[in-house]
Design a protein that fits this description.
two-stranded antiparallel ribbon; Serine Threonine Protein Phosphatase 5, Tetratricopeptide repeat; about 475 residues; 6 strands; disordered N terminus; 21 helices
């Protein structure tokens, strides 16, 4: 898709809301709203909406990136100490349910009217990713009744297991709908309307979910991977196929870039800088910016969860912001990288779910992560992977993969947070001045509005899942 058309399509993409009463709907018309929305406009705006939600302040910078200790806060440190209001996570809930999933359901409906299965397949993949973000963060969520506001204004919450299995079925349906010889689509700013990469994206999401449930449902996980192998489209197989949205100039710049234009309250976590320095990891100067004032270490992370006074005493000019790569206007919002897929395949092999070579795939994953950031030198990569602290440990594959995947997923707060909870590596220490009695958060709390707007469903979800607290473990977090 040409860059010049990106903003025009995003700005034009509006889905008009229908009123409950026919007479009111006839009077209360939005002159700027499309009464017959076009799927290409909807697709562009929805892809950007999900990416912005995934990569933005509330769900990434101000929560999951802190929980997983990629970033830390040097002022306004309450989120880094796990202090949240009951509406803190409302933006993610509202953006994905009220906007993204609603729009994707509309695209699915239009695809049937236009007899274009490729729109159906793409929308199902994006909808599955949206639901996956929600259930990974909150646990039990509205799924089977979600997005049916006309018929089900108060949707029930489905158990997390039900959601994951439903998403696997949805992605299998999407895979069958997508055809490289089928009707063309437009408006796709992830893969420029190419269907082949969408088939690999769908399979890569299926791999991600199969591993989410592997501790609970190993047989279903194995069957999912067997189905993918049988289907034959494969997974994301190079860095050029990484699923990502590449941002453009303002007002469509990366949300991290937008935030750092006006704020200066985030720094890289000391947990990351210590780990990268201990491994002599060449990604350190990419992940972290040099301190503004010269310091002996050049790259200085800060501990997570300091009090405001202790954090500010470290000095704004003597601590490191995240690297300029991540703060650039055009920096991509990475959804699934080639490195993640290779780590996933390595884990599947280590679990005995496939017959591939886990150690080889693990090395390939680290190499792919290095390549992703422009580190190509074979000697540099070999010296890194040959270190005893990096060499694949088949006897504790969760530690090897967990540590290296955590490094490779830097900046992808929601995904790295899910993987850290699932694999239990790296072994993070709670925030210095955290308020959870020495615990770390293991989920998001539901928006407070759910208690008033969907009270019965919310109450049933809490009964099924456990208290609506940051410390209540989710179904997939089995260990």
């Amino acid at each position: 898709m040409k860059k010049s058309s990106f903003y025009i399509i995003v700005a034009a993409a509006v889905l008009g809301a229908a009123s409950c009463k026919k007479d009111l709907a006839e009077i209360n018309q939005n002159p700027n709203g499309a009464t017959n929305p076009q799927p290409d406009y909807l697709l562009t705006s929805t892809e950007k909406k999900i990416a912005d939600t995934y990569w933005g302040v509330d769900n990434n910078m101000n929560s999951s990136l802190l929980f997983v200790q990629h970033w830390a806060k040097i002022q306004y440190t309450d989120p880094d100490r796990y202090i949240f209001a009951n509406n803190a996570f409302t933006p993610m809930w509202n953006a994905l349910y009220a906007q993204a999933i609603t729009n994707l359901n509309k695209i699915i409906s239009i695809s049937k009217q236009q007899q274009n299965p490729n729109y159906n397949g793409v929308a199902l993949v994006l909808r599955s990713w949206s639901f996956l973000l929600l259930t990974d963060a909150f646990g039990d969520i509205p799924y089977s009744q979600a997005g049916k506001i006309d018929s089900v204004p108060n949707p029930a919450y489905d158990a997390q297991r039900t959601v994951y299995l439903g998403l696997l079925n949805d992605l299998k349906t999407a895979q069958a709908s997508l055809s490289t010889s089928g009707a063309a689509i437009a408006g796709d700013v992830l893969y420029n309307n190419q269907i082949g990469p969408w088939k690999k994206f769908a399979n890569s999401l299926r791999l991600r979910i199969a591993l989410r449930i592997a501790d609970r449902e190993p047989q279903i996980a194995a069957q999912t991977l067997a189905d993918i192998a049988s289907e034959g489209s494969g997974y994301i197989s190079s860095n050029t196929e990484t699923a990502q949205l590449v941002y453009q100039d303002s007002p469509n710049q990366n949300p991290i870039s937008n935030l750092f234009d006006t704020r200066d309250d985030y720094r890289i976590s000391q947990t990351v800088t210590d780990k990268l320095r201990a491994l002599n990891d060449p990604r350190l100067p990419i992940y972290a910016a040099p301190t503004a004032d010269p310091t002996p270490l050049t790259y200085v992370g800060i501990p997570n969860g300091l009090t405001p006074g202790d954090a500010s005493n470290l000095g704004f000019t003597k601590t490191s912001k995240p690297g300029t790569y991540f703060r650039a206007p055009h920096a991509p919002a990475v959804i699934i990288s080639y490195a993640e897929v290779l780590f996933g395949r390595a884990e599947a092999a280590a679990r005995g779910l496939t017959g591939e070579n886990a150690a080889d795939l693990y090395k390939q994953a680290i190499t792919a992560s290095f390549n992703q950031y422009g580190i190509q030198d074979a000697t540099t990569i070999k010296n890194y992977t040959d270190q005893p602290a990096v060499t694949f440990n088949a006897g504790n594959y969760k530690q090897s993969i967990g540590d290296q995947k955590w490094i490779a997923l830097f900046g992808q707060g929601l995904e790295s947070y899910a993987e850290w909870r699932r694999l239990d590596y790296p072994q993070l220490k709670p925030a210095v001045a955290g308020v959870l009695n020495g615990a770390l958060p293991v989920r998001f709390i539901y928006p407070g509005s759910e208690q008033t707007l969907n009270g019965n469903s919310y109450t049933n979800a809490v009964k099924n899942q456990g208290a609506d607290l940051l410390t209540t473990k989710l179904w997939f977090d089995a260990n």
